[in-house]
Amino acid sequence: MTSVIPKGLSEQVRALAGGEVSSRALVERALDRIAGTQGTLNAFRRVRAEAALREADDADRLLAAGRRLPLLGVPIAVKDDTDVAGEPTAFGCCGEFPPKTEDSEVVRRLRAAGAVIVGKTNTPELGQWPFTEGPAFGVTRNPWNPDYTPGGSSGGAAAAVAAGLVPAALGSDGAGSVRIPAAWSHLIGIKPQRGRISTWPYAEAFNGITCNGPLARTVEDAALLLHAATGNRPGDLHQPPPVDVLSAVRRDPGRLRIALSLKPPFTGTHKHLDPVVRAAVLRLAERLAALGHEVVAAEPRYGAGVGLSFLPRAMVGLWEWSGHVPDRALLDVRTLTAVRHGRLLGGRPLRLARAAEEPLRRRVGAIFSRDGDRDGDGHGFDVVLSPTTATPPLRIGALAELNSWHTDRATIAACPYAWPWNVLGWPAVNVPAGFVGEDGTLPLGAQLLGPANSEPRLISLAAQLEADQRWYERWPAGAPGAGPGGALSF
């Protein structure tokens, strides 16, 4: 067997199937790197070292017997809002949580695909913020520059993948919580169609705004994890029609009409697109035009209703989830404020927010239809390109001492672009958009947005752009494949 450990998810799958490496070697390497970086990155809340090694040995026996599964023997991480049998699900909160007796549906599917779950990654309390810090676990740092956050709320998952601790991880996205850390950690992050990946044991998560999604270094790896995790079970409220994400990776997207959108939706609070982010998104727009696509400045018609539909669903979701916390007195005072708001917004406000969704889909979706044609050429847009965030990554602790109101304002100012697609339930993909900062170690991202069930088109376009930009060749210092320079050594 080779002494070189393959880095990417797809590479590891191929090496395992070809007998070039063992699952035990891959899992041991992942566990060693997790242990070696916990004191610096702090990406994991729970590590399943003994269980993962047993599962790796089981995978090696299956591989030796000729068994082949999509992820057989590959180490994967999941976020700490996802149930894994034998492990607590604390969702970033303090307190003693009982171990879960059953896997969530998505973990069951990952195991059925052969994946080895090595651990559960850090997330802020109840996934509220675009930074991953909290009294329950400390601070999770960005592998590119440890003075900055990897984002949130899937920040631990993003840090683990960016640093090469695992080849891919599953996060969740309720207001950009996969796409934001993907943007700030130089990764591909996919928010799939609502219901594409089951949220069971919950029929839906956070009143339909939250879904699970992959974080990976390449489009192929993200699509592979999405494929393995996809599926429903009886009781899921949202069960979209199947789509083929695997073949989309190698399919030419064709010539697309792309709307360049730089204006954030209305929130009633101050927002400003940082010039460095604007320039990065414009550079990607230029590359898309050079690849043969038509790129036109155009804005979705969000209106004020999209925010009014989001807020009750998010706040009520926080209130509902806080019922699982052993002692609410241990929660951050900002969390408690949100929980109180959620209790007030149940009932009629929540019903009105849910009723507004379909009119919002028609209004925003007009940009993809003939009715949304702005130039009179007989068709609308295929994809919307927008910033993923309005700013580069935030400094560690930048929001730690703020009260609830100022934290919300600062969060909206930094990340005003992602959450409308959670209200609509439609797919979105973050792609890397370059680096800024004095030493060039602060990643930026842009998102490709599509209408319902458009994951294949978005993945094809992202793969085409990736082949042109070759983002995956750059690693943070200390990660496998890293060259000289960088910000963090471990």
UniProtKB/TrEMBL annotation:
Protein name: Amidase
Record organism: Streptomyces milbemycinicus
Family per similarity comment: Belongs to the amidase family.
Keywords for this protein: Hydrolase
Amidase domain mapped to chain residues: 26-458
Enzyme class: hydrolase
E.C. number(s) listed in UniProt: 3.5.1.4
Organism domain of life: Bacteria
Hydrolase among keywords: yes
The UniProt record lists the keyword Ribonucleoprotein: no
InterPro entries recorded: Amidase (IPR000120), Amidase_CS (IPR020556), Amidase_dom (IPR023631), AS_sf (IPR036928)
Molecular function GO labels: amidase activity
